[in-house]
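Weekly structure sync - notes
Attendees: PM, LS, DV (DV joined late)
Agenda: review two folding runs queued last week.

Item 1: First target. Sequence and structure tokens pasted below for the record.
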Amino acid sequence: MSKPLPRAGRLVTDPPSLTALAADALRSKILRGELRPGDRVVENRLTGELGVSRPPLREAMRILEQEGLLVQTPRVGAVVTPLTMQDVYEIVTLRENLEAMAVRLGVPVKSESALAALRETLELMTSHAASGREDVAVEDSYRFHAALVALADHRRLEESYRSLSIQLQLCMSMNRSARAAEETLVERAERHRRLFDLVVAGDPDAVLRAMHDENSRSFVRTIETELADGSPSAQAWAAEFRGPA
């Protein structure tokens, strides 16, 4: 006998697997900064914290290895992928140039639907800030900036930006940790609202100045001594944040 069809209007979906839940939880720990680049992933501790057994946890760790968040190290095991100053230099400068290109192409805004999508990310960030949702702060930042890039209506530019999503969020996480003591979530949301208002006003130069003042590099000053040196270009770039000796 065939199985009865679901009632009309009801969406039937499979619940997420233990592996998917463990991958989401572990990814969140990394992007929130609870596990930092170079930290060892201790399976015994995580099975208790996440409430899963070793098999789904190990499968989740393999997923995060494929995403570039974890790496296997001889005689140590899995660690959060370490970052060098060269990595940070490349990620941050590429982000800045992709976003600048998007602003040049997308402001003044030509698509009301794209602007509405950007406004939606801002309202979600504002709602989360009012609720004290520090756990989604990095995701909120990435979502807003990805929507900003989408204003350009440039598929390859948007794909390039999204291909860096995990690396961008790692740097955003470190930046949020560096700014948390001096900027509340509500203040952060208001800063993004000012940026949104400049986008609506249609002045790309003003938007770019505000994005530069936003200083998505705040964390570089706090972590510079922790990271291995990069190329001469990366070292010169990092030196901008040291100030006078």
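Item 2: Second target, run right after the first with the same settings.
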Amino acid sequence: MLQIEHLKIAFPNPKGHFEAVKDFSLHVEEGQVIGIVGESGSGKSMTAHAIMGLLDRKSVQVSGSIRFEGVELLDLTRSQMRSYQGKDLSIIFQEPMTSLNPTMKIGPQVEEALRIHTKMPPKERKQRALEAMALAGLPNGEQLYHQYPHQLSGGMRQRVMIAAALVLRPKLLIADEPTTALDVTIQAQILDTLKEINRKEGIAILFISHDLGVIRALCHHVVVMQQGEIVEAGDVEQVFHHPQQAYTQRLIASRPTRTKLKAGGSHG
């Protein structure tokens, strides 16, 4: 479904250029849940933005190949790429308050992709939005539909972002650190919701995090990034229990104790 081959992302600077991502390759098949883990600055979010066509190609050098269902995304114009954004490819970000419009009610924000990509009448749009909200684990959708972002908790706002990303049932959902700002209990609930979405809808998920324990709780396969490069990849349990690289070992050791206990308990 998604094939990334030899992706490089570079930013020009006075000394030439800085390579944020170096020779990144990854294949994501239908229904897979794959994690990309690494510290801040490892290039993981930059890779996600490249897939979604969110990088400014005038100021960023992007080379290699990103193919989605056989279409080379790097060859598309901005307007052509918009036909994929929110429809076949969706993304949720770390802090929903920077993505949600504080002056707009929740309902219309969840419906946004429907307004952009379909000619669905308002009544049907609302029904689809309520269905997406239910799928994202939001109770009392009818009531929430008319509320504003500031009236919701951080966890509920993140679920609103998930609902908005799911409203057109994309084939690939990219989750860029979506649980980082949440406490460990809400984090676990959001991960359970994403698991259920994958199981029920068959939507592939590319989950990005700095926490290997979070990746382990959700993903089948993991890619470990350091300074723009893949340093380790494989089955998540194999990498977690038998890390080959010192960097991966440090990521495991640096996780908070309660996350270690929770991840360890969930896998016996």
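Discussion on item 2: The first strand starts at residue 2 and ends at 13.
Action: LS to circulate a short write-up before next sync.
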